[in-house]
Design brief:
It is a single chain. The chain contains five helices and six strands. Helix 2 crosses helix 4. By secondary structure, the protein is an alpha+beta fold. Strands 1-6-5-2-3-4 form a six-stranded antiparallel beta sheet.
């Protein structure tokens, strides 16, 4: 009996250490992702469905499968259905599984999409360095000022038939907020990366020469 209790205690200690390592790893990945986003990630113009498929969805779905398969973060899926059956609160029964799925999905996004996005961004930078700078002068259709803390100040325009935007500071966009965006163009210098993505090098707003004419 004492041996059984001792083994159980050892197993609980090991399980607790494993959980601590997993959560530390998760926090580390999240911090790396935030640092990369704010300090190293390129500003892109362009889009491609291959990014959604190969950089986001495939890594996240594989990650979700691995998290469930290997019981990462100590969620025993074999106990989920019995737990739901025992739950008396109807509302809890309804939201229990979707909430658990959403939690695992977000963990998968952090553990698998963040690294795949960083790798993709690095490949794009390497590829773009092989290409020359291209210059485009594009018609502005909106100067967007963020009213919330988490929003972005944007210059919006059409690039290769699609709506695009450049994130800018409030100081950069402030002089144009009370003016007609139809009177302005944005000149961008970009380098082509992989697929249909272009890395933004520089940008400049130009007023149309006939905007002040009667």
């Amino acid at each position: 009996m004492k041996i059984t209790k001792s083994k159980s205690k050892i197993n609980k200690t090991r399980e607790k250490k494993r959980e601590e390592i997993q959560y530390k790893f998760l926090i580390a990945i999240l911090i790396i992702g935030v640092i990369h986003y704010y300090f190293f990630e390129s500003e892109y113009i362009g889009s491609d469905n291959r990014y959604d498929l190969f950089v986001f969805w495939i890594p996240v779905v594989i990650g979700l499968f691995l998290i469930v398969k290997f019981n990462i973060f100590s969620i025993d899926w074999n106990d989920i259905l019995p737990t739901i059956r025992k739950e008396k609160n109807i509302f809890h029964k309804i939201i229990y599984f979707p909430f658990l799925f959403l939690m695992h999905f977000m963990i998968s996004v952090m553990l698998f999409w963040i690294p795949s996005n960083i790798i993709w961004d690095g490949i794009n930078k390497i590829e773009s360095n092989k290409n020359v700078i291209e210059t485009y002068t594009l018609k502005v259709y909106d100067f967007h000022h963020s009213t919330g803390r988490s929003g972005s100040n944007l210059i919006r325009f059409i690039f290769k038939g699609k709506k695009e935007r450049i994130r800018v500071s409030y100081e950069d966009i402030k002089p144009y907020l009370d003016k007609n965006p139809d009177d302005f163009q944005v000149s961008v210098e970009v380098k082509k990366g992989i697929w249909n993505y272009y890395i933004l090098e520089t940008w400049d707003i130009k007023e149309l020469s006939n905007s002040n004419s009667p």
